[in-house]
Amino acid sequence: MLVFRAFRVYPWLMQFIIEDAAMADIDLSVEDSPIPASPVTPQTFDENHVIKFRCYKGIECFNACCSNIDIMLTPYDILRLKQRLGITSTEFLAKYTYPFEFNKNSIAGVKYKPVEGGTACQFMVEEGCSVYEDRPTACRYYPVGLLSMRRADENFDTASYALVEEDHCKGHLEEREITIKDYRKEQEIEDYDEHGRGWRQLILKMKSAGPSIGSLSKKSLQLFFMACYDLDRFREFVKSEGFSASFDLDEVTRKTLYEDDLALLKFSDRFIRQVMFGEESIPRKADAYDQLVKRREEQAKIRQELEAEPNDQPGDSAADS
Question: Cα-flanking dihedrals φ and ψ of residue 4, to 5°?
């Protein structure tokens, strides 16, 4: 079985090492996909499967799928949308999303927040989607559901597909036939899949690890959320003194992370894997832990000295009498 042991728990970092990586296969059902696809037909398909579907302005059900949303966002979705809107990830998350737990007391995901008092997407307009060029992965895939499955003894996920058939959708009645492979190209999904794959693998990894990783602390859950979804806050974290004192990054890498959202997104995946699963890929400074202990001791000494100073108040000294 997979056993994790915590060691050197820092205020900014929780790290785990794998003591035994042998684990039995785990079968993942449709419900285990990080991207919900319900209602889903019981069958799963490969990319060569032919579907009948067409959506266009003027179809009877136009905008119906955007009127009652339940859309999970990937980190790359958030990156694209916050860039589209010209706001920070922190602002985007606060205005357009809400968090949810994959399981009780576990890591969080992010979903679109509907309009105030309703169920419609905030980006839906009469003409369709106001952010269509940067619409999320789930919207691009519809009516296809992406199922990411991963064997516990493998370090890669396997994609298969299912068909989402909802009563309100009339696109299935259209005569156009298209393979899932060509539909994915048509919807320009390739980049979204490529940049979302690391996140899907992380979610599946957390699910397959299950109870073996134990209960994650509040700090660990917050760290996971920030690194995955709130890139601008994560960037400030990477710029922090504590991070610089702990990780050995060259100046070119630092500059890239400070300026390039996509590079930072890829780096955040490496960071989470390192601090939560012990998959070392970011070089650490040899004396990082010793320096942390030294700073803490100095801070504690300063606090003690301040607390030991007499708390002089007017009228306490002889000169005031």
Answer: -115, 140
